[in-house]
């Protein structure tokens, strides 16, 4: 009798039963419980010491390598007075700790998550140019640690920092500023710990980043290892290049200053006798310009060098003050012209009186003498006509002809000022903008 067929059927039924039983068993596995068991296994007492750093690459005794990348969420303020800026970022560190390897249950456990950083070894990184900083704890602490099956550890945290940013304001407000973010090891030297930028894209910036008075042009990553008496320490830095938005300063500073200077020139067109109007106009523009200058300097730190805005406000203040001094000169010239006219009038009256006395004396003389003097007078007058015919009038250039239309010196001063002040101010603008704009381009190179 052939028993092979029943036996094969029985074996097939047994395999089916065992397979179904294994599937039912896997379906009932509690992976959260497995995570707890794995964490207790790798982080239990006597199994893991968070005080000991991980081994080097490939389990060697070399330095532990920590890869770092950043995600800049926002840049809130950039202060010129305090020379600092505030940034909110997601900070990530990643390193290999072979002591934390575990079984991933056939790919079912991708990673383990921790929220307590003191359970595992952490790099002693600090921000060397930090002034203030804090973590975010709403609603829960914004931090996690992921442990992968191969022993890789990912540490991520959201932090807000206020960092120092030394600025050079010589070209203010046509300047560009470079603010750095520096990260270094505090206690571990490069023999034990090395920081490296993560390959690919180590720094990301949120899209549509808006700043009130600056534009983030670009950012650069670099290394900045420092040597001290206690050894060499690993250091990373990010240089953020900010360009100041000039349109704000053009509207708030440059155009109002130009308008004040032009308003001060209105006094050149007012009558010389309008003393109250010209004085009040000059004093008002001068005080307004001084207030504008003090307001600009109040928003800037007291540096020892001259800024571009100082040159602009100083020259504009000089022009306004010059217009006020010009009226003082016109007033003095006007009084001098009046005194001269009075002197000429007095001299003409004296000459007229003298000529009337001479005429009366001639009328009293003898008629024969009068007739005898007529040929002599006629001869003298003929010689004077001949001299006038031979003498040519002096040549006058265009400027003298034009200035001759204004007989008084005070009027001439006003007319010359109407041309000189705008011309000199235009030349100053040409020199100012060409100098600082080209210097800005050279510094960019």
**Individual helix count:** 8
How much of the sequence lies in strands comes to 15-25%
Q: Give the N-terminus to C-terminus distance in angstroms.
A: 98 Å
Biggest beta sheet attributes: 8 strands, mixed
Number of beta strands: 14
Can you write the helix and strand succession as a string? HHEEEEEEEEEEEEEEHHHHHH
The low-confidence runs, each spanning 5 or more residues with pLDDT under 50, are 367-381
The radius of gyration computed from the alpha-carbon positions, rounded to a whole number of angstroms, is: 46 Å
- The secondary structure category is alpha+beta
Name the average pLDDT.
82
Tell me the overall shape.
rod-shaped
DSSP helix fraction: 40-55%
